[in-house]
Specification:
Layout: H1 3-23, E1 27-41, E2 52-65, E3 71-79, E4 82-91, E5 97-102, E6 140-147, E7 150-157, E8 178-188, E9 191-201, E10 209-221, E11 224-234, E12 242-252, E13 257-268, E14 275-286, E15 289-299, E16 309-319
Antiparallel strand pairs: 1-2, 1-16, 2-3, 3-4, 4-5, 5-6, 6-7, 7-8, 8-9, 9-10, 10-11, 11-12, 12-13, 13-14, 14-15, 15-16
Length: 320
């Protein structure tokens, strides 16, 4: 074997070691979910097609520690074979963490848009046209930290935010860059309080922003957890504002079995009827298997009388 071949094999071996070391901090996790769903209502035609569905996710996560002690981590989730969520986080220790995410997740006030305790899903899940949420979108930056036992999340959604690759520019979008903040803390055992404020891009003009606000309290005593939340969304230069009041109670029957019931009422400015949401949920876990079900009903969706919708889902999921 000549020295050139030896040199090539040595370089190849070094490359394989380097690649192996680089991959050592990456992990892969996954889940599979099978569900049965039904939907009924005047405004949302009865579901006459296939009611069985399947969802499968694979998440790749990796991290590296920098010389100054900061940690940089990244995650990417493949949902049914397509990208569903990506995030890059720089954890600066006591200085907090800065994350940039795409496609899925919550930012700023959106992190606490509905904190009512539930055994499965929120009351608006699966209801087409349900209103009253103070979410700001998923694409953008989020800074998080904990100061004096208060958790802080500050979200920033860039103008015309969209899921883009590096080196590309998004098309024109509504709104300038918008900012929101969410705070949470526990002033006493069992009690967690939340507060958030901010704005989001108005859908009709690049120069308009809608104002958002929410506050909530969740109290846990033994197996019972109760919650209350009020949210307000003021639409720019419009009488169509949304004031949402919600209540919820969850009961842990055992360590593995829980049930919950929740109601939300959305007072929509300019409408004679309120949107009324209600939902009951149940959840059971056994090792890596979880069985959950919920039934959500919304009357007067979007403030339209007789536009009543119902969504029911039973699902079994496995984590691996």
């Amino acid at each position: 074997m000549n020295k050139y071949t030896k040199a090539g094999l040595t370089a190849l071996a070094g490359s394989l070691v380097a690649v192996s070391a680089a991959q050592a901090d990456f992990t892969a996790t996954g889940s599979a979910k099978m569900s049965y769903t039904s939907k009924n209502g005047a405004g949302d035609a009865k579901h006459t097609g296939a009611r069985w569905g399947m969802d499968k996710d694979i998440t790749i996560a990796g991290s590296v520690e920098l010389d100054m002690g900061w940690t940089v981590s990244t995650t990417h989730t493949l949902d049914n074979g397509t990208g569903s969520q990506s995030a890059l986080t720089v954890d600066m220790g006591s200085m907090g963490a800065l994350k940039y995410q795409l496609v899925d997740g919550a930012l700023g006030i959106g992190i606490i848009d509905d904190v009512l305790p539930t055994a499965d899903e929120e009351t608006w899940n699966g209801i087409t046209g349900a209103t009253g949420r103070v979410t700001v979108g998923a694409n953008g930056f989020n800074y998080s930290n904990t100061v004096s036992a208060v958790s802080i999340n500050v979200g920033y959604v860039p103008a015309g935010s969209a899921s883009k690759q590096t080196g590309t520019v998004g098309s024109t979008g509504a709104g300038t860059g918008t900012t929101s903040i969410a705070l949470s803390g526990s002033p006493m055992d069992g009690l967690t309080v939340y507060a958030g404020t901010g704005n989001k891009a108005n859908a009709d003009s690049v120069e308009q922003e809608d104002d958002l606000m929410t506050y909530a309290a969740v109290y846990a005593y033994g197996p019972v957890t109760v919650g209350y939340q009020f949210s307000e969304l003021d639409t720019y230069n419009s009488a169509t504002d949304y004031d949402t009041t919600g209540y919820s109670i969850a009961y842990a029957i055992t360590d593995d079995l829980s049930v919950s019931y929740a109601e939300r009422t959305v007072d929509i400015g300019g409408n004679s009827v309120d949107e009324e949401q209600s939902g009951i949920s149940v959840g059971y876990s056994m090792g890596g298997m979880t069985i959950k079900a919920h039934n959500n009903v919304t009357d007067n969706v979007a403030g339209t009388a007789t536009n009543d919708l119902e969504h029911m889902e039973i699902a079994v999921s496995f984590a691996f």
